[in-house]
Amino acid sequence: MESAQSILLYYMYYEVTAGGLGYDQGVAAGVVGAYGGTVYLSTILAAWLGDRLFGPEQVLFGSAVSVMAGHIALALLPGGVGLACGLVLVALGSGGIKANASTIVAMLYGEGDDRRDAGFSIFYLGVNIGALLGQVLTPVVQTRTDSFHIGFGLAAVGMAIGLTQYAFFRRSLPAEGKIAPNPLPAAQRTRAGLIGAVVVVVLLVLTATGVITAARLDYIVTGVVAVATIAYFSVMLTSSEVNRVERRRVLAFLPMWVASAVFWAIFQQIFTVLTIYADERLNRSVLGLFEIPAGSVQAIEPLFVVLLAGVFAAVWTRLGPRQPASPTKMAIGTIIIGVGFLLFVPLAGTGANGTPMPAVAGILLVFCIGELLMSPVGQSLSTKLAPAAFRTQMVALFFLSVSMGSVLAGVLADFYSEENEAAYFGVTGAAAILVGIVVLALVPKLKVLMEGVR
Q: Which one of 1, 126, 258, 410 is most buried, by most CB atoms within 10 A?
């Protein structure tokens, strides 16, 4: 996903003469935010397919194929048709990978195993190695060839390589991953299929009639994510298949969901506001010898993740039961990402391409530290707190917080401009810090509700 996303915004708002589609910059940023939100929103469908029909491992494999097909569409199909087909396939496939891969990782550790957070940090390391390579190579190829389509094609090749190696080693994964833990009765499968077909038809009609447009997409996705989140929490808190202990754990996850959404609303601006910032405000020259492509600036953050994820995993393993509770880690991560945005305030007014690269690299290091306290820990916590009947779907609920944050990153981008950037970064960063402090104050009560889960 990140390989294509590194050049996606530029592809949308660059002029047609420069190989782009010529979209308005604000609309393009909103679409990128909505796309990111849809990626994580699709984890609901993917989690349901894993829990009720096919098992998480088989959904994971099919989702990887969808991502590859999406990149092929972006590479080969021209204009808006290629953009729409490609983004839909990549979004659906990426959601399937994110929801079900986390479940498979969790299956490698028993309940109460203190190595689980460390295991998710190692898993996160692998994810970011791929993101790093994609975000470095794709913009370089696109810049050298002056073709966005060749850049998207490279992402498809990388996905094909990853899919091939996974196909060779998938048989060594736990057998339970191929089994749906809460299988849908045969009598209900036809109804589910019909509902799915109706939803697709309705979406096509709304798009064809102009109800769903590029300019409205981010707000539409925001509403859908909000409704889906309320529905998910309601179902889990009222289901007869969820016992008292599990219900209290789901309730404890609610403030963690809010903290996560706020965190990602800032972090995912790497792909919206900070992508524009890298193009227009950042001095990308290296010692006057060469210039880093704007899209490759996004690779700085996953580079730090690759360097530090192992360190975090080692620390959590070494501390064992003495490590901070997961809610504490997530609250601190939210505070740190807010601090990262505040660090942009002193850089306001540096002019066109006047911000020094080391300053932004340092801010992205702060982002990385916050991410390592939020994302792998949040994924791990969702598996720890998950009711038995909603194991994969609880992971999807966590990813809904990422979905909300991602689409808000597109919505917020419309309020950013060079003229008001000090206020923009200052207010947004301060809001995140405030949320983190509130959640940190709630940690003692959350520990009680979590019923022994750390």
A: 410
CA 434 to chain centre: 23
What CA–CA distance (Å, rounded) separates 355 from 284? 9
User: What is the residue whose two structure tokens read 């970011």?
Assistant: 128
pLDDT in tens, 287-318: 777 788 888 888 888 889 888 877 887 887 88
What gap in Å lies between CA 322 and CA 184, rounded to an integer?
A: 41
Phi, psi of 292 (to 5 degrees): -75, 130
Interval 51-105: pLDDT, tens? 888 888 888 888 989 999 999 999 898 888 888 888 889 988 888 887 788 778 8
CA atoms within 13 A on the CB side of 435: 25
Exposure string of 307-325, with b = 16+ CB inside 10 Å and e = fewer, is: ebbeebbeebbeeeeebbb
CB 50 within 8 A of CB 180: yes
| Alpha carbons 241 and 313: distance in angstroms, whole number | 34
Whether 64 and 163 have beta carbons less than 8 Å apart is answered as yes
Taking Cα atoms as reference points, which of 1, 34, 41, 39 lies closest to residue 397? 41
pLDDT at 114 over 70: no
| Residue 310 or residue 227, greater confidence | 227
Q: What is the pLDDT of residue 81?
A: 85
